[in-house]
Input
Amino acid sequence: MIETDILVIGAGLAGLTLARVLAGHGEKVVVLEKSKSPGGRLSTRRSDFGSFDHGAQYLTSRTSGFTSLLNEFSQSGDLAPWDPNGKDSARSWWVGKPGMSEIGKSMARDLDIEYDTRVIGIVKQDRKFLVHTEGRSEAGPDYLASRVVPAIPAPQALELLTPLDPAFVRLKKVAMAPCWSAMLAFDARLQGVPDLIRGQEPDVLSLIARNGSKPARTGETFVLHATPQWSREHIESERNAVKSAMVSAMRVQTGLDENLPDPVHCEVHRWLYALVETPLDQPFLGNRENTLFACGDWCIGGRAEAAHQSAQALARHIMSL
Ligand SMILES: Cc1cc2nc3c(=O)[nH]c(=O)nc-3n(C[C@H](O)[C@H](O)[C@H](O)COP(=O)(O)OP(=O)(O)OC[C@H]3O[C@@H](n4cnc5c(N)ncnc54)[C@H](O)[C@@H]3O)c2cc1C
Output
């Protein structure tokens, strides 16, 4: 059994922000992450044809705290502006360099993080919490902590926390939409197609983004996101059917129709909890004893900045105890 003061579940932007602030103030913090790398939905997949940011596309900032973080990564070279042809906002857009996953990698440095470690249950043990984990193919170690913070999507936090404390039934209020994401590469430039196209219901695709137009990327690569409604309707669809429906939608939504060549590379990823539809509307959730908490983008809204804001608010609260 491994003992720590604070156990954070999830190495996405919220978990990493929280762990960074608390560890910076001398707290003993361990982060458990089910994937093999940090970043959560700020993620990048590599291929022989180039990389793909198949989750969040870009970051924007409205708060001084997040602006400071973006400045820090911009100065270290891990972040760069993206000004795609087709940009539909006056705000600055920032992307990880060479991929969105660089942000998580950079934040994870110097933190105590166990990867390939999924939390499968939490039980109360005297005044502490015993946290059960599993690895990729075998049982993982147990952890004992005084405070536990799932920084994971609300429906997943609900499963872990409601058996422990009724305060967390409030998580049921939060709604999160799924998103099918497709990663496509072509062997020649698609003439006349802007770097960014938005769609809306009844379109199949909410976004067509030329990933290769972001700084430090190569290849004629595209990321497609299906709308929440289409993703929901096809949540259990077979991957090949999803691929061909999304490529067909790209033909229509780019206006290339039959002139769109077949991609030389195509894969899809299903995000079960991609975008926040109904947030909690408070910065974080906690129990009366201040021993169990939950934070993440879903507390505030559907953008990466919200994950950062939520975690910062919780870090301030924990440090004030
Ligand atoms: C398709 C898509 C497009 C998006 N576009 C944008 C955009 O353009 N701009 C923007 O600002 N935001 C965008 N977002 C939203 C943004 O990515 C999120 O708001 C932000 O990354 C959420 O961070 P988080 O830390 O709250 O959660 P997450 O990133 O989901 O992190 C949670 C982490 O917990 C881990 N985890 C879950 N359960 C367990 C468990 N039981 N045990 C251990 N680990 C666990 C997960 O593997 C993950 O790493 C997009 C998201 C998606 C999916």
